[in-house]
From TrEMBL:
Biased composition (Polar residues): 1-13
Annotated spans, Disordered: 1-24
Taxonomy of the source species: Bacteria, Pseudomonadati, Pseudomonadota, Alphaproteobacteria, Hyphomicrobiales
Gene3D superfamilies hit by this protein: 3.10.450.50
Organism: Mesorhizobium kowhaii
Residues covered by the SnoaL-like domain: 37-130
Protein name: SnoaL-like domain-containing protein
Domain of life: Bacteria
One Pfam short name: SnoaL_2
Amino acid sequence: MSTGTKSSHSEPSIPSGRDILNDTTAPLDSAARTTLRKWLAMIASGDFGDLDSVIAAEAVYHSPVEWHPYPGHDLVCLLVRTAAGVFEDFKYERQMAGGDSAMLEFSAHVGDIQMKGAHLIRFNSDGGIMDIDLIARPATGVVALGNGVGDKIGPQIKAALTAAGGRKPDVGYGTSDRKGLAP
């Protein structure tokens, strides 16, 4: 109910750091743009023949299934290829890019579970993908994705992590106790 007095609220404050309202971030550089085009073509076609060439040697994959990241070119390529085979009806809906990063919003299914998510991708100075962060919802879809990937390559993930420094998987891919656990 209005009291007839004028509200005296101020403009919302912007947290310290980057001013996103006045940001003039440069668009993706040419090498990153070329890589992003290849990535989008691979996802659309399901042909991952160029994947090894776009994933950087220092690449890291952040999964919604586990807290700890998955390091290394070969493991990142394995996870991307396998997850692509678990997702059904995968489609990018929105794309945003600037500086060294891109955000690709997607919709997909895992079995009968409809999912929404995003790939947050960072590129190195040569245009290689050095960081992929997969965020997704709902939790039941994330669990189904983790189970699907784990069923296909769980032992390979466990072996790769052990070889890379001895880290064991959390409760996601590559563990025998992952069934039914939320990420």
